[in-house]
Amino acid sequence: MRRLIIIYLLLIVFFVIFVYQYQTDDANNREYQQDPLKGEIEETYVMITYQSGMDYWKRQLKGFEDAAESLNVSVEYRGTTHYDTEEMIALVEQIIAKKPAGIAIAPIDKTAINTVINKAVEADIPVVLFDTNAPESNANAFVGTDHYNAGIEAAHQLAKYIDHNGEVAVMKNKNTDQDRERLEGFKVTIEQNYPNIQLVQIENGDGDQTISKEAMIRIIEEFPGLEGVFATETSSGVGVAQAIINTDRIGDTKIISYNIDKQTVDYIDEGVITGTLSQSFWGTGYWSMQLLFHLEHDLLLDNSGVVNIPRYIDTGINVITKENVNNYYMY
User: Fold this and answer.
1) What's the rounded Cα separation, in Å, for the pair 72 and 39?
2) What's the pTM?
3) Which of the four pLDDT bands, split at 50, 70 and 90, describes residue 301?
């Protein structure tokens, strides 16, 4: 009899433990399921860019993927092979047909794919633009750098390093929207704030190191006392740096470049390029993913049921000089 009582007690204890464990697991599962910042792995968010083979997109994609991992959702990366409007339109059409949970797009320019962007929004697919804005489209938001303000900052940086005096030039890229905005911000700031600085030449380096180098050598021949140069993108900056080396003007002609790669970082460390302005690439991808998820899950609705989100989210720029360049050797 005593043994039977012990067996009954043990069975009761085991039953209590089982019930407790079951309730605890069930509560944990409910808590996980109710977490608004956890999606389903079947949810797929797509990043679309032009010229997908460029290293330029790798850091944006890494930020996009990191955000997706934290949200427990999946991502897909697609891009055109060329800088081609029709190819991008066809690609976005294909993605829309798959009905993804959201799309992050880097448009080719401000207007070229507005119609297909609007088509995605009309299909109830959240759309966030990054890197390049299309302000007249119906996209939910833009995440990226204010390129006009970047041009303003470039003017202030260059003016500081040439003591607010002397002749300067600009080595620009192709006629992209971003490049035009950076150039305009630079020009207006020099004209309005620095009367002793003369912008003597604006040259098109075509986003090519060799072309930029040769064009810069010609500028130096025409203006041998050139104090500074603003290169509006990475390859142009590297080409300008090579021209400065070849003409023995290291330290005499200051260079402010835009964005970074390994060569730019090396030239800053060596004192050839004075500084560069870098976009927050990882942050652009990260916040694009976060916004898409929040839009898809209706997490940005105010009390009246209206989506409460800024149309333009500026991720800012970083100023990289010899003082902090070692922090950027990961690139």
Assistant:
1) 5
2) 0.75
3) confident
